Amino acid sequence: MPPTVLIVEDTQSLAMMYQSYLLPTGVNTLVASDGQTAMDIINKVHPDLIVLDVMLPDMNGLDILATLEPDNSPQVVVLTGHATKEMAIQAIKLGASDFLEKPIEADRFRITVNNALKIKNLKQTVTQYKNKYENGKYFDLIGSSKQMQSVYQIISSASASKATVFITGESGTGKELCARAVHQASNRANKPFVALNCAAIPKDLIESEIFGHLKGAFTGAIANRVGAAGQANGGTLFLDELCEMDINLQSKLLRFIQTGSYQQVGSEKEVKVDVRFVCATNKDPLIEVENGRFREDLYYRLHVIPIELPPLRARGTDIIEIAEALFVKLALEENHPYKSISEGVKQLLMQYSWPGNVRQLENVIRNVLVLHPEQYIDTDMIPALPVSTKTQAQHTPIITEQPVSTETPAFDMATSQSEVKPLWLAEKEYIEHVIKICVSNVPKAASLLDVSPSTLYRKIKSWEELE
Hints:
Elements: E1 4-8, H1 12-22, E2 28-32, H2 35-45, E3 49-53, H3 61-67, E4 75-80, H4 85-93, E5 98-101, H5 106-132, E6 133-134, E7 137-138, E8 141-142, H6 146-158, E9 165-168, H7 175-185, E10 193-197, H8 206-211, H9 228-231, E11 236-240, H10 247-259, E12 261-263, E13 270-272, E14 276-281, H11 285-290, H12 296-302, E15 305-308, H13 318-333, E16 340-341, H14 343-351, H15 357-371, E17 376-377, H16 423-437, H17 442-449, H18 453-466
Parallel strand pairs: 1-2, 1-3, 3-4, 4-5, 9-14, 9-15, 10-11, 11-14, 16-17
Antiparallel strand pairs: 6-7, 7-8, 12-13
């Protein structure tokens, strides 16, 4: 819908001229010849921009400007044939975005109006984002860290688009909550959000789950079924663990994404729907493509707006924000008299690496609430937290600082050709040594090595596969 511009000008010939200036821009224009008419239009129509003459027959134009609410007001460009420096300063102080002196050339007029409308759009975007993001929470996502701020910004920027969102991240990082936030931030928020876990459905049933089937299409099809694609019409279809989808079905999904049309199992009739796709995986999709388990053309079709959710261990004090929110939420579910957690508990939660991410944190909190009916949660109530098997460490309550070993590391420089090791092995030994001196704290090791934690976890996984 094009923006609406109200021209407040008592000289009819000038008002018509300003309207003609704006014809090429495609905006809607309204005209008011006096202040009271202008205020009536403003209250009823809520224009995006007001081109406001100062000298009106019934009032000063700046008086109209002063009545506008600062939080939800249109942009205002002030016009006058008797400009003074003091008047310009007063207009800007009252909230005008620009000040033009008559007579005005057409190009200058159009550029000024266009710039003011751009500022209006930007303000609306910022306001929408602030309304959605309050007190460290963006819809159901929680966290004030820079990593999550970046995620929120991407979701907010992509909200008005139909472009496919591809979410990656370790298991338990909240990929479905992120997908729901994409849906809730969009203009499809009042339409269905349909989630389908591709890993949880048997291979021979997933096509029916996505596209639906007709009665009698296969053994057990005792009635017609719409399928997730049909259920999500007008809304969002979330395909979780997409890389687990059978390679043969991926071609049908690709065609569905390209055309918006599909066939139910057992039917030759084309069904067309309006669906936005959000996909997620806890695997590296490019590795899956290289290994032939995921179609390259499907990957590039889906990988339009990528969102990488950071692991919990890399999110700093988000751990405390999430834990406190989960304690409140789960206490209500368990009818628990929870009040607060101690500073010691906060320190323990911050020190742990959380290999299972938010899902593991939630399970630990439920364990605490079920086993301890006290209002105040202290450190002795927190169960032993296992260290990830990736670090080959024993189960221990919480990682504590240990003195750095002064032993000579195993990656001494080679002194002869026979001592030269393959590059990957030398890298492996060095990284493992750094992780060891960081007391198995992979994010800290990554920081020292100037790489992202995900890079180290990917390397550790590849070494495990080689072994």
